[in-house]
Write a structure and sequence with these properties.
35% helix; Rossmann fold; 172 residues; 6 helices; globular
């Protein structure tokens, strides 16, 4: 049985705590103009709010209407560039192009055989030199990495440790 995040978020403000530290370090070290970020499974926005406060535009997808409502209320209060869609990852098709795809402990909730195809769909929405940032169960990262090292793809693995996989497309 899947965990009921909608009920959890309704009862627990900021239920998942602070932004993921590895993502904080990545975004604090990021140079250049503001980026377009797609956050898969962004819940109440623990990562999205931090990222938007740095000036980046964040689009998020989550199945929890409560989580998204709470996140968008914070975004309105602080005038943050965040938009959200209540949708499941399998049914949602990304619109536009993104500089960064962030997936914080979300893909492991999908059936095992659907994780790769869903990730591939969203990878195709990344701009050239775009970044993929994944936090997941370490045993799942091997499958995600295999999608990046296929011969037709040009990915550079930037960070692969302790349940994290960071990569950049088109990088040498």
């Amino acid at each position: 049985m899947l965990f009921d995040y909608d009920a959890f978020y309704a009862e627990t403000p900021e239920g998942l705590g602070k932004p993921t530290q590895d993502f904080v370090e990545f975004f604090e070290g990021l140079e250049g103009p503001p980026k377009q970020v797609l956050d898969l499974g962004y819940g109440q926005g623990r990562d999205a709010i931090f990222i938007a406060r740095l000036g980046h535009k964040v689009t998020g997808i989550d199945t929890s209407s409560n989580g998204i409502s709470q996140l968008l209320a914070t975004a309105r209060q602080e005038a943050l560039p965040i938009s959200g869609h209540v949708a499941d990852l399998e049914g949602y098709g990304p619109i536009g192009s993104y500089d960064i795809l962030l997936v914080d402990r979300t893909l492991h909730m999908l059936p095992k055989e659907r994780r790769g195809p869903v990730l591939t769909k969203f990878l195709n929405a990344l701009a050239m030199n775009g970044h993929l940032l994944i936090a997941d169960e370490p045993k799942n990262l091997t499958v995600f990495k295999s999608l990046l090292i296929e011969p037709q793809r040009n990915w550079h693995i930037m960070n692969e440790r302790r349940g994290f996989l960071f990569a950049q497309s088109g990088a040498l």
